[in-house]
Design brief:
five-stranded parallel sheet; flat; alpha/beta
Length: 387
């Protein structure tokens, strides 16, 4: 027992000496036993951290709704009626005009409605009641996509686009048009775009012709949107420029509905027919010799009413067919046609004279004199006046 204890002490002492040698000697001077003991003394590497468990139901990020603008009490009410295409139009109009306090979109569409199934929804009978209830400033109608079916009347059942079907359908369009005629140009019947299916596209073109004839007869507006959603040959295309000019998918996979970008473009066309303040309308040009207007007892003198976008007219009242030529030898001719620089003016940014202001203004005076003489010559010759 004593011998075993002594042997154990010698082993412990040997191990201690090896540890001291490992601490003092460099690693390359250590033997195999020392290097083995070195590795045994190193702590175990930490276990890799377990990945954090993914949440069972990640939170869904929902964009905050756009702030609602309070509409004015006297805001223009736009009544939108028709089928599912009109419903998408109403939604897009509401989005585009959400921040305009002077326009309210009233959606009274029926997605499955049309003019054929009057037993399901009778637009000629319903529209007068809607007008009386809402008292709209504008009426926008878009209907007919659901009308590609036979028509049942008291006289029988008529096949689509047969002679009897055509007569009955035109009669229902006329009945509806009598209500729209009350609004005149403040009523818009939006036409159909081309469809992917050729037979359906042909039917939509046929319907558009009926609506266009009714608009001309009853005095409301027919808005033809065909070219806005067609290719160069007037056929269906699923893509095209959006309201920002970017090529987008405008039509849905079914070949007749609109995508969100297509609905916005459709609303853009309709918006252009509404008398919004952003459209301008007309401008009164101040003129001492104009007509006198009073407002709140304050007299105001204004000039002629200039309608924005109206074609320019010549002195004899005829439309100007071409731009008047620039007179030769004038300052404008020398600058635009001959490419000569404008004469510098003292104190202007192109005055490089030294000392500053020491510039010969004779060329400018001569140019102004030439312009004045040419203007006097035009006054003597009314035919030479472009406007």
């Amino acid at each position: 027992m004593l011998r075993r204890t002594a042997i154990g002490r010698w082993i412990i002492a040997a191990l201690a000496l090896c540890g001291l040698a490992a601490a003092v000697w460099p690693a390359e001077a250590q033997g195999p036993l020392e290097r083995l003991l070195d590795r045994l003394r190193q702590p175990d590497p930490p276990a890799p951290a377990a990945p954090a468990p993914a949440p069972a139901n990640p939170a869904r990020v929902i964009a905050a709704p756009a702030p609602q603008v309070e509409k004015n009490e006297d805001a223009m009410r736009v009544l939108v009626v028709g089928d599912f295409q009109a419903r998408g139009l109403a939604d897009a109009l509401e989005d585009r005009l959400a921040e305009d306090p002077d326009v309210v979109i009233v959606d009274r569409t029926n997605g499955s409605s049309g003019l054929v199934r009057d037993d399901f929804y009778d637009w000629p009978a319903v529209l007068p009641d809607l007008v009386e209830e809402i008292e709209p400033s504008f009426v926008v109608m878009m209907v007919g996509t659901n009308d590609r079916q036979e028509m049942r009347t008291g006289e029988g059942t008529f096949r689509l686009r047969s002679e009897a079907w055509d007569a009955a359908y035109r009669a229902r369009v006329a009945s509806l048009s009598e209500t729209l005629a009350v609004f005149g140009s403040r009523a818009i019947w939006v036409g159909h775009p081309p469809m992917r299916q050729q037979s359906m596209s042909a039917d939509m073109a046929f319907f558009n012709a009926i609506y266009d004839d009714a608009a001309e007869q009853y005095g409301f507006t027919f808005l033809d949107i065909w070219d806005g959603f067609a290719d160069a040959e007037g056929r269906f295309t699923a893509t095209g420029p959006d309201v920002d000019g970017q090529i987008r998918t405008l039509r849905a996979d079914d070949g007749f509905s609109f995508t969100s970008a297509g609905r916005e473009k459709l609303a853009f066309f309709v918006e252009g027919e509404l008398p919004l303040e952003s459209d301008g309308g007309f401008v009164l040009i101040p003129d001492a010799g104009g007509i006198e207007m009073t407002e709140d007892g304050v007299p105001r003198v204004v000039g002629p009413v200039l309608v924005l976008g109206e074609p320019q007219r010549g002195a004899n009242g005829e439309l100007v067919t071409e731009a008047a030529p620039i007179r030769p030898s004038t300052l404008l001719h020398r600058f635009l046609v001959r490419g000569e620089p404008l004469p510098p003016v003292a104190g202007r940014v192109d005055d490089f004279s030294w000392p500053p202001g020491a510039i010969d203004e004779a060329p400018v005076a001569e140019a102004e004199a030439e312009e004045g003489q040419a203007a006097l010559a035009e006054e003597d010759d009314p035919a030479a006046v472009g406007l």
